[in-house]
Amino acid sequence: MTCKRLLFVNRHTPRAGARAAEMLDAALIAASFGQEVHLAFLDDGVFQLLKGPAEADVDDVTTRFAELDDCDIDHVWVERESLAERGLVVADLIIPVALVDRDSLSATMAAMDMVISA
Amino acid sequence: MIPPLGPLHTVNRPPGAGVLESCLAHLTEGAALLLIEDGVYAALAGSAVAPRLTEAGGRHALYVLGPDLDRRGLARRALVPGMRVVDYQGFVALAANHPLVQSWV
């Protein structure tokens, strides 16, 4: 199978219906088929990666991100402006990410074979 | 003399939805704002909307629903100055005391 570069764009909070969980499912399935999978978090999507105190009832999807194996997903991009506009910093996030500014993320999106949004 | 209470406005959408800005632009004298559900993300200090909330806080009571902060792991985070955390009983009291509740969804 030809390997394609797939980008999954996450723009909504973890509780905005089943969007976040279904995007992660789709991304993991694509990764299991050997595709080059990228996740992008921008706008309110950055809240999906926000870690809470250990005793907090953090959302399921956030917990699942924390348990992602390094080999599952190739790249996790977070838009710098979206994070800053929400009063957050990288240290608030539950997994290591690549912080990119808006222009770079736009270029990253444009360079993909496929961009999936929900 | 304390002016009579106006509407209680609730916002349940996150900052990126643009709903809070619209609500803030429609607050009349005596109106109060209560952030609930995904609306509570806007209560975080240091956000882009924080200065507008602080400004509104000079003229209006600002509330955020504590249980919804807890569920999102935000209970210990710094909030916009003047933002008061209420529980469900507080929510009921606010709704009962204000003559009108307007939901921004």
Could you characterize the architecture of this molecule?
The complex is a heterodimer of chains A (118) and B (105). In chain A, 31% of the residues lie in helices and 20% in strands. Chain A is of the alpha/beta class and 118 residues long. Chain A has one domain: Hypothetical Protein Ychn, Chain: A. Chain A has a five-stranded parallel beta sheet. Chain A starts with a strand and ends with a strand. Chain B has 105 residues and is α/β, with parallel strands linked by helices. Chain B has one domain: DsrEFH-like (Hypothetical Protein Ychn, Chain: A). In chain B, 29% of the residues lie in helices and 20% in strands. Chain B has four helices and five strands. Chain B has helices spanning 19-24, 50-57, 66-71, 88-97; strands at 8-11, 32-35, 61-65, 83-86, 101-104. A five-stranded parallel beta sheet of chain B has the order 4-3-2-1-5. The radius of gyration of chain B is 13 Å and the shape is globular. The mean pLDDT of chain B is 94. Chains A and B meet through helix 3 of A and loops of B.
The helix/strand order of chain A is EHEHEHEHE
Taking all residues together, what is the mean pLDDT of chain B? Answer: 94
CATH-defined superfamily of chain B: DsrEFH-like
Distance between the termini of chain B: 33 Å
Rg of chain B is 13 Å
- Figure out the total of helices of chain B: 4
Strand percentage of chain A: 15-25%
Number of domains of chain A: 1
Sheet having the most strands of chain A: 5 strands, parallel
Brief summary:
The complex is a heterodimer of chains A (118) and B (105). Chain A is α/β, with parallel strands linked by helices and 118 residues long.
